[in-house]
Write a structure and sequence with these properties.
Elements (H helix, E strand, L loop, with lengths): L7 E5 L4 H12 L3 E6 L2 H11 L2 E4 L5 H15 L4 E4 L14 H29 L2 E6 L12 H21 L4 E7 L24 H12 L9 E3 L8
């Protein structure tokens, strides 16, 4: 298995939910974690627990993303892992969605993934190694009522990562995609830990363990896609 000790890992959407769970678990495995989100206060508390860096940033802002990459390289001199977790969603009938909802979801879910990969891939190519993990959704592989915009953004994110996987594999870089079902976070209408979600949703820690599993796979093992099933909490 791959050792994550001293690996430099950028995790987006790290202030709460899945991103926070991923950041904490990677730090426990010895990785140097750079936590990225818009909430500076929550990030500072997380950075204290992970003994890593906290960099407030908007994942859809090109200057912010470039700054995260440059600050990481200045501090650690390398980047080994990128976990694209930041995501937003809202669910409505197509005709009841405002155009700015389309922009918001595509900015965070798709553009954010694009920008981080754009600025990190050249460094991974130069070192001929690295691993990008995209946390998308099971709705990147299916459609559902009221999910027109969110589903479209996740299909687009999935296509981006799938194409990138083919581009960078000859350079020794892995790209993996995780498709969680419902996860017990603030992303959903119910509050985390409520009776409504306890038996039907994955926990953020379940997704974090899937990220760890992928990252620790031996170098010759390529796991392109991993689907998580919320009702059984198995993967």
């Amino acid at each position: 298995m791959n050792d994550l000790t001293d690996k430099v890992a950028i995790v987006t959407g790290a202030s709460r939910g899945i991103g926070r769970a991923v950041a904490l678990l990677l730090a426990m495995q010895g990785a140097r974690v750079i936590a990225v989100a818009r909430s500076a206060e929550e990030l500072e508390e997380l950075a204290h627990k992970t003994n890593g860096l906290a960099i407030p940033a908007d994942v859809a802002d090109e200057a912010d993303v470039q700054n995260v990459v440059e600050e990481t390289l200045r501090h650690y001199g390398q980047i080994d892992i990128l976990v694209c977790n930041a995501g937003v969603g809202s669910f409505n009938l197509l005709e009841n969605n405002a155009a700015d909802e389309w922009d918001r979801m595509f900015d965070v879910n798709v553009k954010g993934t694009f920008l981080f990969c754009k600025f990190i891939v050249p460094h991974l190519k130069a070192q001929k190694s690295g691993h990008i993990v995209g946390i998308t959704s099971d709705v990147a592989r299916r459609t559902f009522e009221h999910g027109t915009i969110y589903g479209a953004s996740k299909f687009a994110q999935d296509a981006l990562l799938g194409s990138l996987r083919k581009e960078v594999r000859p350079h020794g870089i892995k790209v993996s995609t995780i498709y969680p079902g419902l996860v017990d976070t603030y992303f959903n209408e119910a509050k985390p830990g409520s009776a409504d979600t306890e038996k039907t949703h994955l926990k953020p820690a379940d997704v974090a363990q899937a990220v760890r599993y992928i990252l620790e796979a031996p170098p010759h093992v390529v796991i392109d896609e991993l689907m998580l099933h919320p009702l059984t909490q198995e993967w």
